[in-house]
Amino acid sequence: MGIRHKAVKETLEKGTHEEWNDDHEVNYQAVIHHQDIFLDFGTIAEWNAAQNTSGTNPTITLVGGFVCARLAATGGVGNFGTIRHELVGAAADITNHTAQPILHMALDIQTPTADNATHEFGFMANAGLPFAANQNGAFFRIDNNVLFAVSSDGAAETTTDLGAPNQFGNYKVKHTATADTFFVDDNETPVATHTTNISAADLTIKLTCADRAAGDNYLNCQATCLCTLRQTA
Predict the structure, then answer these.
(1) Can you give the pLDDT at residue 64?
(2) pTM of the entire predicted model
(3) Burial class for 15, CB neighbours closer than 10 Å (0-12, 13-18, 19+)
(4) CATH number of the domain enclosing 154
């Protein structure tokens, strides 16, 4: 919760009630947020793995010195390692473009195989299957070891090629009714801005990797943070 402090007074200096009311106006913009840092098992309980088909279920573990939610796509070609955020103990969509949600993700992507789409992470419809064509969302995809920003309204996609992904990255997606904006590694300048194929559906946070013919794939998520601007325009 943000509180503005415009008027600064010295000790015993008097002020007016107008100054007090204005000075202490609560500002909720961009401060309503939900944060998950994967440091204990209780955090993973907020996530649903029912779509997981991998030979290894998602776990909280230590990888390369970082505690993370580890998704392992193993056990056969086409299997998924996937988690999606829950609402009141069940998989559900948790936000909408009218809230202008912003999602931050701290990820470790271990050497994706160069064989079709291997990773997806960001805002996606809860009911959509991982890697389904034209699924509603605003998210990042790795395909043949190339990172893409993706917007989809359920009928068609707009994508931007962002080049080869780094192993460690901070990813941010801002989703509104008119545009999806994508950022990588806390850069203030967006790496992609889409104004077509913007989803109007309710969405959740979903992270997925896939087992492909070229080998197993992994996705380690250290933290996520969801903020909502709470504006309707």
Answers:
(1) 85
(2) 0.85
(3) exposed
(4) 2.60.120.200
Asked whether residue 106 falls in the same domain as residue 7, the answer is: no
**CA–CA separation, 6 vs 22, rounded Å?**
8
Confidence of residue 20 (pLDDT cuts 50, 70, 90): low
111: left (phi over 0), alpha (psi -120 to 50) or beta: left
Closest listed residue to residue 220, CA positions, set 73, 142, 84, 108: 108
pLDDT exceeds 60 at position 121: yes
Contact in structure between 109 and 142 (CB atoms under 8 Å): yes
- The span from the CA of 226 to the CA of 101, in Å, is 7
Give the range of the structural domain holding residue 5, as residue numbers without chain letter: 1-28
Scanning the structure block, which residue is given the tokens 């098992």?
A: 41
- For residues 175 and 101, give the distance between their C-alpha atoms in angstroms, rounded to a whole number: 6
pLDDT score recorded for residue 72: 97
d(CA 55, CA 77): 11
